């Protein structure tokens, strides 16, 4: 019956139908001698019907076997087993169906293999990450805990299957307090001499139709110490540079003054003393700037009239007002905001911008005020934009790196934010948003 698989289904049905009708007609002609025409036809059909059923069954037996195989492979796919394939010699519609089915199996097999590989990679990353990860069921039982979580909470032992409150009862008091407060937060573990700082993050999501909680405990001590060391190194470099720039000429001029007195030439002393005074005042201003940044008090917000505030600002630095002048009030610490804007406007002048192009823009937002300081200098590249708001970062030869950092501290202390962006056509825009 192999040759029948190569015949299309439509031809098989047509051939069987024609053969059956021809056989029935021939048999009816033979029986007409003894029976009427109608009776001969009925007898012929009745005699040939079992033979037709036999041939139909034999003709379609391979297809029935194929359909059973298809059902079995589909059940295997449903159970996650993609190792099965089918074979069909025919070039008919069933051959196309088998080919499409095998292609589906190959695609599912490749996807399953890729998924298994990704799961292995993800499990390796999760198990070896320094962040302690815990997954809790709604009843508070631990479903998963990685190696860091076992080390932190279970002394290295497996903690899956235990109730989290039982594990937490054995943890340090600061960790218990952090969970009792709810939400995200920071807490310290250990003594003052050997203290470790952690950040707790809690997230909820649904898994298999049930609400689960994911706990993340990240150790910050090493990172904070590294950042602290880098910051202190930078502070020391900046302070050393400024002190050397001022103390070296002061020492040299003091020595020159002593030599002038010894030689009896006091007429040149005023020049040396004036230079010493100038360097000493510069050093005083430098130290005062650091002290102001380190001891910035909490803002004392009071109602302030914008026109009066802008007029006071104009007495200290030149700028043009962009747009229409706004006649309104806002609540902020006028002394702190004045200091922040003075730093930004002086930076704009130092960028090489013509004085007439240094502008201040003030706009009313639905629930905030936007203040922008605009210049037409050279702007900033991406690296400078990413670091310009950090304390002690400066591209100027004698810069302290505190002007923009202080403006950021003041904006954030008021609940606002500050951003830097390059302007079309050249220049920089420093945008500060202050909420009502």
Automatic annotation (TrEMBL):
Catalysed reactions, semicolon-separated: ATP + protein L-histidine = ADP + protein N-phospho-L-histidine
Classification via PANTHER family: HISTIDINE KINASE (PTHR43065:SF51), SENSOR HISTIDINE KINASE (PTHR43065)
Domain Histidine kinase: 238-436
CDD domains: HATPase (cd00075), HisKA (cd00082)
Molecular function (Gene Ontology), one example: kinase activity
SUPFAM superfamilies: ATPase domain of HSP90 chaperone/DNA topoisomerase II/histidine kinase (SSF55874), Homodimeric domain of signal transducing histidine kinase (SSF47384), PYP-like sensor domain (PAS domain) (SSF55785)
EC number of the protein: 2.7.13.3
Residue stretches making up the HAMP domain: 68-113
InterPro entries: HAMP_dom, HATPase_C_sf, HATPase_dom, His_kinase_dom, HisK_dim/P_dom, HisK_dim/P_sf, PAS, PAS-like_dom_sf
UniProt KW Cell division keyword: no
Keywords associated with the record: Kinase, Membrane, Phosphoprotein, Transferase, Transmembrane, Transmembrane helix
Top-rank taxon, per record: Bacteria
Transmembrane annotation, as ranges: 34-54
Subcellular location: Membrane
Official protein name in the record: histidine kinase
